[in-house]
UniProtKB/TrEMBL annotation:
Keyword rRNA processing assigned: no
Keyword Transmembrane: yes
Keyword list, A-Z: Cell membrane, Membrane, Transmembrane, Transmembrane helix, Transport
TM ranges: 18-36, 48-74, 109-130, 142-162, 174-197
Any single GO CC term annotated in Swiss-Prot or TrEMBL for this entry: plasma membrane
Protein location: Cell membrane
UniProt-recorded name of the protein: Cobalamin biosynthesis protein CbiM
PANTHER family in alphabetical order: METAL TRANSPORT PROTEIN HI_1621-RELATED
Bilayer disposition of the protein: Multi-pass membrane protein
Single GO biological process annotation from the record: transition metal ion transport
Pfam families for the chain: CbiM
Length: 223
C-alpha cells in the first residue's frame, strides 16, 4: 500500500465520480458563504492564515507503529481566527499544496476542501459559544483544535469507506489510527495559541477581555 494514501487530503483516482462532483458542489457553497461581503481589511489576515495552513503540510510527524508520517492540518486555528472566511484559506492552501508539493489532487480539491473546511467553519462558529459559556481559553483551544482535526479525519474516513472506487475499509481505519497523534498535538497547540492571543491580541479571535472598560467613558459628575 502506498504510504501517500495515509494523507487526509485525498488524491486523484481514489473516489467515484459522484463523490467528486458532490465535493465541488459543497466547495462552491462554502466559498459563496465565505466570499460574501469580504472587507479589504480582512484580506491580509486571510493571506497569513492561508500561508500558515499551507506551510503546515511540510511539518511531518514520523510514526513508530506505521510505515509513514502525518502532518499538521491547522484547520482549527484557521476556523477560530477567520470564522466563515476559513474555506477561502483552506481551498487556496489545498490548491497550492497540490500544485507545488503534489499533495492531494485536482479532481478531489472540492471534496478535500469540504473535509478540511467544514470542521474549520464549525470551530469558528463554536468558539464564541464556548467563550460565552465560560470555558477557559486553553480548554477552548484544545477542544476546537483537536476536534477540528478529528472531524476532518472522520469525514475522510467516511469518504474513503463509502465513496472509494476500490475497497478502502482497511485504509480508512489506518488513516484514523495514524492521525491520533495529530489530534493531540494540534489540540495542545491551539490551546496555547488561544491562551496567548486572548491576553495580547483578543481582537484576532473576535473577543474582548471581560475586564476591559469601554473607551472614552464619561467620568461621573458627582463628587
Amino acid at each position: 500500500m502506498h504510504t501517500a494514501l495515509f494523507a487526509v487530503h485525498l488524491g486523484d483516482g481514489a473516489l467515484s465520480d459522484v463523490w467528486l462532483a458532490s465535493g465541488f458542489a459543497g466547495m462552491a457553497l462554502l466559498l459563496a458563504v465565505a466570499l460574501y461581503r469580504v472587507r479589504e481589511d480582512e484580506v491580509p489576515r486571510i493571506g497569513v492564515l492561508t500561508a500558515a495552513f499551507f506551510v503546515a503540510s511540510s511539518v511531518h510527524i514520523k510514526l513508530a507503529v506505521l510505515p509513514t508520517s502525518v502532518h499538521l492540518i491547522l484547520n482549527g486555528l484557521v476556523g477560530v481566527v477567520l470564522g466563515r472566511r476559513a474555506p477561502l484559506a483552506v481551498s487556496i492552501g489545498l490548491g497550492l499544496q497540490f500544485a507545488l508539493l503534489q499533495h492531494g489532487g485536482w479532481s478531489t480539491l472540492g471534496l478535500n476542501t469540504c473535509i478540511v473546511g467544514v470542521p474549520a467553519l464549525a470551530a469558528g462558529l463554536l468558539y464564541p459559544v464556548l467563550r460565552r459559556l465560560g470555558v477557559p481559553a486553553f480548554a477552548r483551544g484544545v477542544l476546537l483544535g483537536g476536534g477540528a482535526v478529528a472531524a476532518a479525519v472522520l469525514l475522510n474516513f467516511v469518504a474513503l469507506l463509502l465513496g472509494g472506487k476500490y475497497e478502502w475499509e482497511r485504509l480508512a481505519q489506518l488513516v484514523l489510527l495514524a492521525h491520533l497523534p495529530v489530534v493531540a498535538v494540534e489540540g495542545a497547540m491551539l490551546g496555547v495559541l488561544v491562551s496567548y492571543l486572548e491576553k495580547v491580541k483578543p481582537e484576532m479571535l473576535g473577543s474582548v477581555p471581560a475586564q476591559q472598560e469601554p473607551a472614552n467613558q464619561p467620568e461621573d459628575a458627582t463628587w
